[in-house]
Amino acid sequence: MNQTEERHAEIYSPHHRSQSEDIDLECTSYEYFVCKKPFCSKSDLNRQIPVLSNEKNSKCSVCKNNEKHFKCSVCNKSFSQKYKLNKHLHVHCNEKHFKCSVCNKSFSWKFTLNRHLLVHSNEKHFKCSVCNNSFSQKSTLKTHLLAHSNEKHFKCSVCNKSFSRKSSLKTHLLVHSNEKHFKCSVCNKSFSQKYKLNNHLLVHSNEKHFKCTVCNKSFSSKFTLNRHLLVHSNEKHFKCSVCNKSFSQKSTLKTHLLVHSNEKHFKCSVCNKSFSWKSSLNRHLLVHSNEKHFK
């Protein structure tokens, strides 16, 4: 019996009920010390004590409400009633007293810190029933399980494309922004997505694993191969909005569009004459080379 039970011994003392037509004579009652409410068994009383003790106006006839058995786990302040402790705990909502010794991240609650510590351990108790991948936190497993479902709850507000994971949506949103966080260490070209950088890096390698089945030409990335394959097809998906001429490759369309513009980006370094096409500039340069031959 703990200290509270000893101080309130009458809670557990049996009281025989008075005879009455509607009361069972065989029933031995247990009386709750606050409201004197009788119970037929000790288990019934114990079950009801948490409910009754939460009543705001209840007063202890033994300790006169001076004993404070409900202690705050954050600041050790004690309260006589549980509802007061619960109310007090809101004070600590913004306070983060529990610091992780590994990464110094702070938490408001000790149980939250304990849960966080699993991240730093090699213990992964939460296993995916689909692919057997294991995780240290239940929340991470829940997020992972979305990958195996067809449900896509995260929708892009720009293009309405949907994703099963919030992280995938965040990565996708970079496409619509001008932010390019992934920089190539070789040529400093930047990309909005990591997979695009990875594809680009293959350009700087001599490895060309992707071979065209039509002409046997090899490419360093699958993306480049797919783009090349359009050359061998009659499909021309890229149409000029000015003259409706179609092209199999986007790059070819871009080059073609210069015809319809007055922009001449290719300047001759000899006479400063400008051209819309690089091929035109190269052809023009022959003029200056012929001049040199006749001097």
From TrEMBL:
Localization per record: Nucleus
Keyword Metal-binding listed: yes
Keyword Repeat (UniProt): yes
Domain of life assignment: Eukaryota
Domain C2H2-type: 70-97, 98-125, 126-153, 154-181, 182-209, 210-237, 238-265, 266-293
GO molecular-function terms, A-Z: DNA-binding transcription repressor activity, RNA polymerase II-specific; RNA polymerase II cis-regulatory region sequence-specific DNA binding; zinc ion binding
Pfam families reported in the protein's UniProt record: zf-C2H2
Example GO biological process: regulation of immune system process
Cellular component aspect of the GO annotation: nucleoplasm
Sorted UniProt keywords: Metal-binding, Nucleus, Repeat, Transcription, Transcription regulation, Zinc, Zinc-finger
Gene3D superfamilies: Classic Zinc Finger
Annotated PANTHER family: C2H2-TYPE DOMAIN-CONTAINING PROTEIN (PTHR24399:SF23), ZINC FINGER AND BTB DOMAIN-CONTAINING (PTHR24399)
Protein name: C2H2-type domain-containing protein
Organism annotation: Diploptera punctata (Pacific beetle cockroach)
Lineage start: Eukaryota, Metazoa, Ecdysozoa, Arthropoda, Hexapoda
